[in-house]
């Protein structure tokens, strides 16, 4: 067999956007990068060579972006986030470099199928869900909008766990996403940063005679940066995502190794690397809590030192730091960055406290992503003082000065002063990180109108009263590049044919589709796209999970993290109730709308009840799917390991989007936006961004149900008794009784008793209270779905009115109201 090899001419600086040019570079990379020829190359060899070839086409823009930024010193956004849930990178890189057709043709000429190589890419699971996916959307938008930015996070060796099901139960396996190599990263060990932990604080006399304090760490680790390109669409900037990996400062002791104690010889290396080993280690143990705090400090310390010492030019006047950077705190995980910047300015740069605090307060902005008290991080003083003693001193001083201000403003209200203290006294002395962020930030924002209002009124109400102008709202958004253009090419082509391609970077242009909702031919083609997407997910689920679903059914989809407040149990009770009615003859099978109920959810490893709910969903699904009497009219699909890659196939197929959290508990949601933009109708409560979706799409195109947030508060205040709803609602009682009877557990009543007992006796998120309203709303769904033309009209209107939910719009809101940065196109 003849060898197919590359020519040996050096790579050109400006890549040739032709099929022949790509083919030459691909073969060169395969030969000299992977060290194989085409005839012997594995699929992974070819994928790695292709990925590196594609990235070559982006690197000129990346280098030019970095050069221009160094020259202009424009103000940048540093997005500090413990999560970046990027999804697969290949398709996004092909889109940004405009190489899709060239690469497909070039590979085909070599007998290679691009789609086969796509499947070889392993998604980096560097996030848990919405928080990390949002961060990825935001950095995509900033690059597309030509805004200077850098993302800072952690290069977890093992990302969010791989979820498998064993007998219907969730079993976690390591997410070894790096096992076959990562062609999208650029390691820079020469730029490693040293980060200290533990030790003590000492007092000393500086050269100027001033008595100062300094931290003497007890041990340290190295943070090694790995850079990723963040390419903007349509030849925009290529910004940088910098992820940090922990390494030991002295990884190997040869003398101990030679003595035969091999484990002890690498103990320091193992200990250090634990910091970036796993995304969100289980924190139900003291060791897990400590490791989480180590992770958080590690990445922000690396990032601040990197920006101050390596990104800024030598000799830069740090008094002007707010003119050059804003650090956006993505939730409470990076808030330890506030005392870290103070430590750098006061201890390392020798500044006076007041001048350091004046600069620090101008450099941070804080996004709160939750309304749940347990999600607002609180670190025990004992742990923080042991791990970061100097930072605890700094936090105490920040708090002392803040409380002194409060006592001047509220001289007769000591209770308010205590409520607002950064240091909590009960049940243990601890640092309230959300309070620290609020005190230090220039702006504090929620992520949907309702969420931001509840932040002001309930969660941080004392602070909003003290600083009313500090609080603002920025409703979340999603990138239309990944979640329409790439994930739904059929819809993308249809929309572009109808209104042009400007919508990809200006999603408000989708409003041009609105008149077409009344065009019968457009509706027909819209349905064809939806049906093709259903066939696509049907094939994927069959091949990926062995799950058989029917493309001619309504796709009723609920995908999100498994948590009680998101109320997967409410959806499940509806399914069980429907099944119970059909099997007992209360309703005829032919009167039931054929549905595929699709779930996607992971439960935190230590969240026992959530894992029991997953087991119950799978058990119900197994029973329903194996019942021949149902004739395939009801199917439950719960594919394991829901991730961005699966979302990109499942969301475009959805007819109905389930957004049914208890009102007042969901901050925003972004899945609800993705479903809307892909032509699904929403059934949901008035919670999070659902409020804005309903207002924009119209009440008639949204299936609203359930208690409002004030009604929830009133019911809880007067005493909520879930068993009362069980006793008075026959359908609910029969559904719960069926689960309790062992019908879905082989007659074993004990298996799902904890779930049933929790709903009947506690039901923290009022699933039973909203059950009947939810069932009634589902009846309205059935009625609407029966009118195919009208349902399609509503679906088109959902797309047409979804332009507000672009992450580009979110970025404009941040830029105008918080960051005050400006676009800097490459080469401008």
Automatic annotation (TrEMBL):
Any Pfam family the entry gives: Phosphorylase
Top-rank EC class of the record's enzyme: transferase
Cofactor: pyridoxal 5'-phosphate
InterPro entries, alphabetized: Glycg_phsphrylas (IPR011833), Glyco_trans_35 (IPR000811), Pyridoxal_P_attach_site (IPR035090)
Gene Ontology cellular-component terms listed: cytoplasm
Recorded superkingdom: Bacteria
GO biological process: glycogen catabolic process
Listed CDD domains: GT35_Glycogen_Phosphorylase (cd04300)
Modified residues (N6-(pyridoxal phosphate)lysine): 674
PANTHER family documented for this protein: GLYCOGEN PHOSPHORYLASE, GLYCOGEN PHOSPHORYLASE, LIVER FORM
Similarity comment: family membership: Belongs to the glycogen phosphorylase family.
Function, as annotated: Phosphorylase is an important allosteric enzyme in carbohydrate metabolism. Enzymes from different sources differ in their regulatory mechanisms and in their natural substrates. However, all known phosphorylases share catalytic and structural properties.
Identification of the protein by name: Alpha-1,4 glucan phosphorylase
Organism: Cellulomonas uda
Primary gene name: glgP1
């Amino acid at each position: 067999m003849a060898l197919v090899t590359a020519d040996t001419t050096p790579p050109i600086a400006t890549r040739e956007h032709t099929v022949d040019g790509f083919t030459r570079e691909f073969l060169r990379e395969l030969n000299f990068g992977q060290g194989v020829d085409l005839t012997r190359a594995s699929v992974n060899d070819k994928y790695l060579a292709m990925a590196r070839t594609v990235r070559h086409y982006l690197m000129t823009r990346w280098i030019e972006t970095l050069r221009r930024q160094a020259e202009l010193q424009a103000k940048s956004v540093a997005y500090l986030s413990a999560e970046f849930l990027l999804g697969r990178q290949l398709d996004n890189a092909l889109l940004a470099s405009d190489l899709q057709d060239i690469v497909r043709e070039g590979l085909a000429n070599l007998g290679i199928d691009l789609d086969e190589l796509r499947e070889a890419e392993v998604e980096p699971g560097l996030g848990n869900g919405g928080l990390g996916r949002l961060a990825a959307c935001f950095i995509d938008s900033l690059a597309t909008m030509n805004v200077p930015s850098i993302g800072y996070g952690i290069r977890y060796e093992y990302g969010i766990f791989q979820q498998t099901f064993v007998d219907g139960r969730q079993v976690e396996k390591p997410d070894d996403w790096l096992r076959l190599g990562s062609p999208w990263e650029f390691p820079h060990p020469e730029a490693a940063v040293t980060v200290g932990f533990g030790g003590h604080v000492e007092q000393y006399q500086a050269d100027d005679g001033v008595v100062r304090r300094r931290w003497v760490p007890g041990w340290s680790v190295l943070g090694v940066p790995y850079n990723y390109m963040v390419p903007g669409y349509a030849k925009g900037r290529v910004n940088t995502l910098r992820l940090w990996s922990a390494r030991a400062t002295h990884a190997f002791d040869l003398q101990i190794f030679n003595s035969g104690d091999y484990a002890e010889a690498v103990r320091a290396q193992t200990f250090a690397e634990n910091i970036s080993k796993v995304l969100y280690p289980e924190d139900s143990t003291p060791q897990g809590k400590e490791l989480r705090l180590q992770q958080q400090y590690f990445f922000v310390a690396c990032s601040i030192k990197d920006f101050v010492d390596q990104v800024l030019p030598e000799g830069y006047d740090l008094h002007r730091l707010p003119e050059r950077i804003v650090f956006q705190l993505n939730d409470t995980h990076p808030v330890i960055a506030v005392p870290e910047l103070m430590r750098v300015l006061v201890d390392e740069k020798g500044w006076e406290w007041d001048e350091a605090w004046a600069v620090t307060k101008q450099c941070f902005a804080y996004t709160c992503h939750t309304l749940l008290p347990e999600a607002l991080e609180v670190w025990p003083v004992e742990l923080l003082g042991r791990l970061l003693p100097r930072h605890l001193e700094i936090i105490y001083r920040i708090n002392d000065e803040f409380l002194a201000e409060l006592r001047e403003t509220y001289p007769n209200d000591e209770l308010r002063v205590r409520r607002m203290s950064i240091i909590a006294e009960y049940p243990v002395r601890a640092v309230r990180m959300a309070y620290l962020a609020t005190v230090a930030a220039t702006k504090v924002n929620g992520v949907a109108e309702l969420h931001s209002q509840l932040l002001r009124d309930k969660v941080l109400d004392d602070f909003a009263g003290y600083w009313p102008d500090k609080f603002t709202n920025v409703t979340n958004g999603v990138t239309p590049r990944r979640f329409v253009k790439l994930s739904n090419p059929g819809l993308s082509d249809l929309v572009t044919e109808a209104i042009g391609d400007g919508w990809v970077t200006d999603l408000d242009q989708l409003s041009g589709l609105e008149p077409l909702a009344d065009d019968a031919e457009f509706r027909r083609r819209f349905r064809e796209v939806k049906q093709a997407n259903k066939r696509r997910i049907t094939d994927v689920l069959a091949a990926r999970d062995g799950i058989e679903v029917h493309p001619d059914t309504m796709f009723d989809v609920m995908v999100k993290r498994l948590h009680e407040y998101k109320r997967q149990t409410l959806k499940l009770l509806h399914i069980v109730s429907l099944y119970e009615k059909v099997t007992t003859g209360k309703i005829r099978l032919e009167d039931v709308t054929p549905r595929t109920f699709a779930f996607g959810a992971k439960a935190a490893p230590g969240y026992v009840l959530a894992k029991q709910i997953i087991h119950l969903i799978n058990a119900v699904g197994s029973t329903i799917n194996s019942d021949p009497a149902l004739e395939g009219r009801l199917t439950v699909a719960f594919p394991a390991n829901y991730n961005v890659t699966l979302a990109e196939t499942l969301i475009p197929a959805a007819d109905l989007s389930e957004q049914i959290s208890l009102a007042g508990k969901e901050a925003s949601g972004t899945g609800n936006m993705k479903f809307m933009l892909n032509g699904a109708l929403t059934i949901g409560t008035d919670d999070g961004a659902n409020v804005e979706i309903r207002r924009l799409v119209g009440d008639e195109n949204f299936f609203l149900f359930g208690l409002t947030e004030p009604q929830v508060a009133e019911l809880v205040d007067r005493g909520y008794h879930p068993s009362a709803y069980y006793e008075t609602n026959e359908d609910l009682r029969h559904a719960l009784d069926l689960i309790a009877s062992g019908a879905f557990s082989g007659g074993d009543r004990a298996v799902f008793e904890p779930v049933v007992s929790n709903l009947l006796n506690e039901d923290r998120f009022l699933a039973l209270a909203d059950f009947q309203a939810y069932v009634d709303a589902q009846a309205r769904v059935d009625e609407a779905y029966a009118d195919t033309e009208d349902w399609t009209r509503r679906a088109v209107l959902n797309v047409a009115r979804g332009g507000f939910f672009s992450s580009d719009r979110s970025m404009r809101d941040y830029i105008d109201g918080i960051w005050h940065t400006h676009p800097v196109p490459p080469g401008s």
